[in-house]
UniProtKB/TrEMBL annotation:
Belongs to the zinc-containing alcohol dehydrogenase family. The keyword DNA damage does not apply. Its cofactor is Zn(2+). SUPFAM superfamilies: GroES-like (SSF50129), NAD(P)-binding Rossmann-fold domains (SSF51735). This is GroES-like protein. Keywords: Metal-binding, Oxidoreductase, Zinc. InterPro entries: ADH-like_C, ADH-like_N, ADH_Zn_CS, ER, GroES-like_sf, NAD(P)-bd_dom_sf, SDH-like.
C-alpha cells in the first residue's frame, strides 16, 4: 500500500517571545466527534498579545510551539464520524474552551470552571491546545455553533469577547427585564462590549471612565456610552491609606459629574488596574454590584469595609458558559449598534506578526487608534 499524501495548511506558530513563524503543517482528517473548520476570522485578544510579547501570560508560560487565537469563526470543511448537527459548508463560531462534561462544575452548567478545561491558545495545560491562527483546525463539534444567516464571520468572532460580558451580566443579574444604571471602567474592546450589552438591555444610564480621552471620545461618538469621564493623571500615592482615600475622592468627583452621586447599580471593572478596582467599590450604589472582568493586578488592596457595610457585592467573573447562542443571536439581530466599529484593523494570516506589533504600539502609522484587530484565514 502506498502512503496517502495528506494535505497541508499554514499556521502562525509562537516559539517564544516575539518569535512568531508561519509554518506549513500536515492537515489530518477530523476524528470521532470532531469537525474540520476553515478559519475565516480571528480577533486578537490581550492575552494573545501577552503571549506574543513575553512568551507567557501571567503564570502560564509557553513550553512548546503554540498557535494563538481564540476569538474565531469559519466554515466547516469536513466532519468526523458521529457528527450529526454540522455539514460541510456550514458557517460556525468556534468556542475555544473544551470542557470535560464529566466533573461537578460541568454537570452544574458552570463549565467555565471545569478543572479539566482545555482552552485553545492557552499555555495553562500541557501539552498546549493550539488556537485559531491557522488555515484549518479540527475541533470538537459540540463547541462549534452554527451562525444565523445574517451574522458575519467577523461578528461571530466578536461572540467570544461578547460572551465574557454576557456571563458577567448574568452574574450581576443585569437582564432586559431588570434595567439598571451601569458604569464601565475601561473602554477597550471588552469595556465597549460591556457598554453595548448594557444599552441593548435597556439600561437607563450607561457611562464610562478611562484614562484615555481618545477611547472615551470613540465610546461616546459611536453611542456605546451616554457620558464619559477621563481620570486625571496623578502621582503614585505614597501610602495605602492615601491611595484608598484618593480613589474615593476621585470617583466621588466622577459620580458628581455624571449626576449620579449615590452611585450605579452595576459597575463593570474592565481594566484590572488597582486604582480602578478600588474606585469601583465606591462607584457602586448601596446594595449594588461590582463585576471584576479585567485581569491585571494580582493582589489588590480593597476598601472592604465600604463594600461590607453598604452590601456592595464584589463578584468575580471568568470566561463564560452557555453564552454562544445568545451572543450570536444578539449580533445577528443588530441589537448592538456600531459593534463592527470596534474592529479597527485587518491582516491576512501571513502577516500575523505585524498584527501583534501593531497591537503593542496602540496606534497605526496614520495615528489611528487600535481597538480590535482581526486576522483572516485564506
Amino acid at each position: 500500500m502506498s502512503p496517502v499524501a495528506l494535505p497541508s495548511q499554514h499556521a502562525a506558530v509562537l516559539h517564544g517571545a516575539k518569535d512568531l513563524r508561519l509554518e506549513e503543517r500536515t492537515l489530518w482528517p477530523p476524528q470521532q466527534g470532531h469537525a474540520q473548520v476553515a478559519v475565516v476570522a480571528t480577533g486578537l485578544c490581550g492575552s494573545d498579545l501577552h503571549y506574543y510579547t513575553h512568551g507567557r501570560n501571567g503564570d502560564f508560560v509557553v513550553q512548546q510551539p503554540l498557535v494563538l487565537g481564540h476569538e474565531a469563526a469559519g466554515i466547516v470543511t469536513a466532519v468526523g464520524p458521529g457528527v450529526k448537527h454540522l455539514v460541510p459548508g456550514q458557517r460556525v463560531a468556534i468556542e475555544a474552551g473544551i470542557m470535560c462534561n464529566n466533573c461537578s462544575y460541568c454537570h452544574k452548567g458552570r463549565y467555565n470552571l471545569c478543572k479539566n478545561m482545555r482552552f485553545c491558545s492557552s499555555a495553562k495545560t500541557f501539552p498546549h491546545s493550539d488556537g485559531t491562527l491557522q488555515d484549518r483546525m479540527n475541533h470538537p463539534a459540540h463547541v462549534l455553533h452554527p451562525l444565523p444567516d445574517n451574522c458575519t464571520f467577523e461578528q461571530a468572532a466578536l461572540a467570544e469577547p461578547l460572551s465574557v460580558l454576557l456571563h458577567a451580566s448574568r452574574r450581576a443579574d443585569l437582564t432586559p427585564e431588570r434595567p439598571a444604571s451601569v458604569l464601565v471602567f475601561g473602554v477597550g474592546a471588552i469595556g465597549l462590549l460591556a457598554c453595548a450589552l448594557a444599552r441593548s438591555y435597556g439600561a437607563h444610564k450607561v457611562v464610562a471612565i478611562d484614562i484615555n480621552q481618545a477611547r472615551l471620545d470613540f465610546a461616546k461618538e459611536n453611542g456605546f456610552a451616554q457620558e464619559v469621564h477621563c481620570l486625571p493623571v496623578a502621582d503614585k500615592a505614597k501610602t495605602t491609606d492615601d491611595q484608598l482615600r484618593r480613589a474615593k475622592e476621585t470617583v466621588s468627583a466622577a459620580l458628581g459629574k455624571f449626576d449620579q452621586p449615590d452611585g450605579f447599580d452595576v459597575v463593570f471593572e474592565c481594566t484590572g488596574a488597582e486604582p480602578c478596582i478600588q474606585m469601583s467599590v465606591h462607584a457602586a450604589v448601596t446594595g449594588g454590584k461590582v463585576m471584576l472582568v479585567g485581569m491585571g493586578s494580582r493582589n489588590v488592596m480593597l476598601p472592604l469595609s465600604a463594600a461590607a457595610t453598604r452590601e456592595v457585592d464584589v463578584l468575580g467573573s471568568f470566561r463564560y458558559a452557555n453564552t454562544y447562542p445568545t451572543a450570536l443571536a444578539l449580533l445577528a439581530a443588530g441589537k448592538l449598534p456600531n459593534i463592527e466599529k470596534i474592529i479597527s484593523h485587518r491582516f491576512p494570516l501571513a502577516d500575523a506578526a505585524q498584527a501583534f506589533e501593531l497591537m503593542a504600539r496602540g496606534r497605526d502609522d496614520d495615528g489611528r487608534m487600535v481597538m480590535k484587530v482581526m486576522v483572516g484565514g485564506q
